[in-house]
Write a structure and sequence with these properties.
2 copies of one chain form a homodimer. By secondary structure, chain A is an alpha/beta fold. The first copy, chain A, contains 12 helices and 14 strands. In chain A, the strands form 4 sheets. Chain A has a 7-stranded parallel sheet with strand order 3-2-1-4-5-8-12, sandwiched between helices. Chain A has a 3-stranded mixed sheet with strand order 9-11-13. The radius of gyration of chain A is 20 Å and the shape is globular.
Chain lengths: 382, 382
């Protein structure tokens, strides 16, 4: 569909990607609206941190144009909003996105799976009544995890793969295996989503995103920066390293640092999502797109930041239970097929990120950077 | 472990299997305690039905010795109970078990996944503190579903299978694919459970159970029968057919009736669970056991009931989205290895079931038998 005709509803518009997407789309589409339950702010406060870039208040004159709604606790209110707004496209960012937060304790794990699984399930039931709406849902490359790591086979960009089992050719759902209760919640979401598409004729795009990094997107004014987390729970690795490089704490590399993942700049995430809006899949289709543009190991990223800033690097005990030595061979052709050309290169983006972050150096909380949650608890005996 | 030394906690002790297990174990093990939130009674009332066999009140002099607890809304209270009781084994039946209920509407779907996924996740976090407790969890053969149906390959009794993918031998998690939001909740549970075992050194038995049938177990007095549901939401097929045969409504076969599943008599379920208690797996192990003893198509069961009672059979539109023509080739060796010999035969059990049900004929509600929930809703277009 033409972007100028899109009526876009962003769920989770107060988040890192949600607010950036609003700024990116507001002058390109017909209309954008956004909902949020503001739980991300609460969770970040709860673990003792806050966004490096100051955020406007939730309510009041200077606040963002976001309606307060909750997919888990009041789905009927969200449904009413959808019926009145009549969007062409819903972008679903309303999930708890932190793996360490989900492994922190029983309550955080339950919050994560309840919010992500039950909230998304409630949304699917709303779309059952409005199957013409294209749902763009954020998945994660972390859903593929272990099953593929030990073998140099390609991670597909599809819901099904063909394998031989007991000398028979069979088609199976693309194996998923997660490494945290957060990642499991995303696996569960993906299964519910594909099932609902098949069941009710919905059309959805499941963007399995790599790790996003970046401070701002084109079209964002200096006084409307999106949230930027660098703590050990909500700070993804590149954003965290850039902030760490401004302190005297060495970059904290977990374990060997050979963990290799897909990455994408926040500007390219915005472009990818707007390409998804313009290219809705047919009815009854849950389309998988692997949304990444580059592949790096943690060590490679640490070295890039070190070259830029001269900071120190330190390997610390890996708090996670994960393979540190593995192959990583994801397919990611669909973004290019849609026309996403010349993606940003991490190496070229790091200097401008550093410039954006520097003015806020005095807000850095040193105590929130070191990992606090160990995956295995005290009973780990592997 | 010796059965006489087992200290058993049954979660969901007010249910069909929970109460039967209490009656079965009470004189065989050291001590049995049970918890329930009594939600099954409420859900059955909500859809306009009730247990064919009358149940004692939840509270009062004649009630069952069950403590009221809830895994989702007050996990801390359950955890305290576990710490005080110090069980050797926890039997986890505290899940919403109906597929049609989970497909009924948004609220029932959310109740199902919240209760089953978040409730079980809360339990896993408790066991993290008590990894010596053996968790016996009820799964379902329905977790395997579609991936295997179209191919005459064996459904394994294992968490992993070896396949060839892109000319490479790889090990993948046993594919699971469900046909309802209930069955998905069980898939999600299984993944969380295996992850927690690996993470925290827990030992668990995941009993992927076929459809259970039967009215009573040895050791159960006439005045303490377990609940018995025959409605279109909570009545499993054999129990429902037996009740239907006492009405003038023909047995309702969904679609072609060639859907083939594993079955097990309630007495053999009890024996299987007590064998699981006696044979705990090692630490850090999530053991999969396929718990069935016979395989039948729906038509075969309908014919057995017809031969016994002379009732009519009618094929009705299948309310579910499922393959009606498929192979079904499950492996189920572990029960026999543990010593479960001479399992009950359905054909031989049906007459005594009919005798148990007859005295309650006047309680049969004719209106609750025909299916009310269509999987695809009004937008189904396959």
């Amino acid at each position: 569909m033409e972007l100028t005709k899109a009526r876009v509803l962003i769920l989770g518009m107060d988040g890192y990607l949600g607010w950036a997407l609003y700024c990116y789309l507001r002058n390109k589409v017909n209309i954008v609206n956004g909902l949020d339950n503001f739980s991300r702010r609460r969770h970040v406060h709860e673990i003792g941190s806050e966004s490096l870039f100051p955020l406007p208040a939730e309510t009041g004159q200077e606040c963002r144009p976001i309606y307060t709604h909750d997919l888990v606790y009041n789905p009927a209110k969200v449904h009413k909003f959808i019926e009145e707004f009549n969007p062409t496209t819903i972008i679903h960012f309303a999930e708890q996105p932190s793996a360490p937060f989900s492994m922190r304790n029983s309550s955080s794990a339950a919050i994560t799976q309840r919010n992500n699984v039950v909230g998304s399930l409630n949304l699917l039931w709303m779309l059952r009544e409005h199957p013409h709406i294209h749902l763009v849902k954020l998945g994660t490359m972390g859903e593929y995890s272990d099953w593929i790591y030990k073998n140099n086979v390609e991670i597909p960009e599809a819901n099904r793969i063909e394998v031989q089992y007991q000398d028979t050719d069979i088609t199976i759902p693309t194996p998923r295996w997660a490494g945290s209760f957060y990642h499991w919640s995303k696996v569960f979401d993906s299964f519910n989503l594909e099932f609902a598409c098949r069941l009710w004729g919905l059309s959805a795009t499941d963007l399995n995103q790599g790790v996003v990094y970046g401070t701002r997107i084109l079209g964002m004014a200096d006084n409307e920066l999106t949230r930027f987390d660098y703590d050990n729970y909500f700070g993804t690795v590149v954003n965290r390293f850039i902030v760490q490089s401004l302190t005297d704490i060495p970059l904290t590399v977990y374990g060997s640092g050979n963990q290799t993942r897909g990455y994408i700049n926040i500007n390219d995430t915005m472009r990818a999502i707007s390409l998804a809006i313009q290219n809705p899949p047919p009815k009854s289709t849950c389309r998988i797109v692997n949304q990444l543009t580059e592949v790096f190991s943690v060590n490679e990223i640490a070295l890039m930041v070190q070259q830029l800033t001269g900071c120190a690097i330190e390997s610390i005990d890996n708090p996670r239970l994960e393979n540190e030595e593995h192959t990583y061979n994801p397919t990611f052709n669909k973004l290019e097929e849609w026309g996403l050309s010349d993606p940003h290169k991490m190496e070229q983006m790091l200097p401008s990120m550093l410039e954006d972050v520097k003015p806020f150096s005095s807000r850095i909380l040193r105590d929130v950077i070191a990992p606090e949650t160990k995956w295995t608890g005290r009973y780990y005996a592997h």
